[in-house]
């Protein structure tokens, strides 16, 4: 029983203790108000139960998500404050090239350079034209 339910039960007991009956208009009104308060208190109790259940589920999801993040990103649990060297490796995957036609600096994946010709995304010209051209 919640705090609100206890207060409504107190009001219900107080109404009976004071001898307020529903035979007069004021008594009828007070009884209806207490009845509405009981329904509100019951609704609050149901909401509190649902929130508690949702809180438990969110905690479970948070734990599962943390485990999934650790598995996906293979996080090192190093508390030494050092930075991960993988960030430097990502920079090495790209090659910086200045287009001979428009002089724009362009970053290409090294695999793209090995696979074939490179087209400048700015001027749409071949960066390394064939010697025959």
Total DSSP helices? 4
Largest sheet: 2 strands, antiparallel
Gap between N and C termini: 87 Å
Structural class, from secondary structure content?
Answer: mainly alpha
Mean of pLDDT: 81
Please compute the radius of gyration using only Cα atoms: 36 Å
Structural description of this entry:
The chain is mainly alpha-helical and 133 residues long. The protein is built from four helices and two strands; from the N terminus they run αααββα. It has a two-stranded antiparallel sheet with strand order 1-2. Strand 1 and strand 2 (105-109) form a beta hairpin. Helix 1 (3-17) packs antiparallel against helix 2. The longest helix is centred in the middle third of the chain and has 49 residues, at 25-73. The chain is rod-shaped. The mean pLDDT is 81.
What's a quick, concise take on this entry?
The chain is 58% helix and 8% strand. The chain is mainly α. Helix 1 (3-17) packs antiparallel against helix 2 (25-73).
What are the defining features of this structure?
single chain, mainly alpha, 2 strands, about 10% strand
């Amino acid at each position: 029983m919640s705090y609100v339910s206890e207060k409504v039960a107190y009001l219900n007991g107080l109404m009976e203790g004071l001898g307020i009956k529903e035979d007069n208009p004021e008594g009828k009104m007070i009884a209806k108000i207490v009845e509405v308060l009981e329904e509100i208190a019951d609704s609050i109790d149901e909401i509190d139960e649902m929130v508690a259940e949702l809180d438990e589920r969110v905690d479970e999801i948070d734990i599962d998500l943390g485990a999934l993040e650790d598995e996906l990103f293979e996080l090192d649990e190093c508390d030494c404050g050092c930075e991960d060297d993988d960030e430097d490796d990502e920079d090495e995957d790209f090659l910086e090239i200045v287009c001979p036609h428009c002089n724009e600096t362009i970053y290409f994946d090294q695999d793209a350079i090995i696979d074939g010709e490179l087209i400048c995304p700015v001027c749409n010209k071949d960066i390394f034209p064939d010697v025959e051209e």
